[in-house]
Amino acid sequence: MFYGIYYPSTGIKKKKDKIKISALCTAIRKRGLVNEFTLQNIRNPLYDGKLPNRAEKAGSSLSKYFDVLKTNFQNNWELKSKGFILTNSGIGVVIGLFEKILSRVMQKKGRQPTKEDFEFYMAPVKNILESSDATHLSHLRLRCTSEGGRSEFLNELILKIRAETRDDLFGGEIGNTKLKAEFVTLEEKLKDLIKKKLYDPKNEVWFKDAVDSSTYGRALKIMKKNGITDMGKIHLQIGLGDCFSIMRRHENLFYPIFINEDTFSNKVILEGAISTITTMRAKLEAHYTGAKVGPGDEQILRIDLEKMNKCLDKALKS
Q1: Is residue 171 part of a domain?
Q2: Range of the domain at 262
Q3: Which positions ≥6 away from 20 have C-beta within 8 Å?
């Protein structure tokens, strides 16, 4: 694939039919392919404590993956910039599928994917990506120029793979990409705040003492499933709903952080905002079948998220 990548340092002006190296690196970084855990919180079989070994393992697996794409998606591959796979728009999607395959194979079989694994999971999307319809391919490239468009299309491919392989766990949890980044950021900040407020270096079971038994049990189960043994990371295994439950359990510690004249003036308004965020997130999930989110609801949600983040940023800096 080396000759399909554009390297600015070479001084070559003509970039047609070449992927920007920055686009490839960005896709690899966003998918966490060299991190200890994948985006689905599965231990990454490509990870190695030594950076050169890590790069070699990731490079070798990606090379195997692209060899499968070159062989099994030959028409699209040969179209280069007029296709989808070898374009700056498409590379983020195919790297995204690589990460999903990597996570699922590790989850199921405890190892990195083989050529056969890549072929198995990519076969269901062949009729979509192997299309020779120029209009269809142009539409796909245009649709995937934005991060939201790429995420949406990736989710559609994941659902198709699930249906045809009958592997309902492939790809992990899929949600509506709208406001997804905002929810993820809020959840991460709340986890940091929970540790900041409740962690006791003298108490090895501080998390167990701080939460209810069901929350603790779920966190342990997730750690075991993903091969995580470091108990220092147990607070990272909870979800947004769990974070809010912990806040309510210790409202004397957490509520004063959010209740003030500039954000939430009293306890009732704060709890209303928490309820709004929880409900709207559920409605925005792909599997949700209830009422749709209206423009007014989304505006209220954005305001509540902004206020929550303002309080969190201040608390985490202090």
Answers
A1: no
A2: 180-317
A3: 5, 6, 88
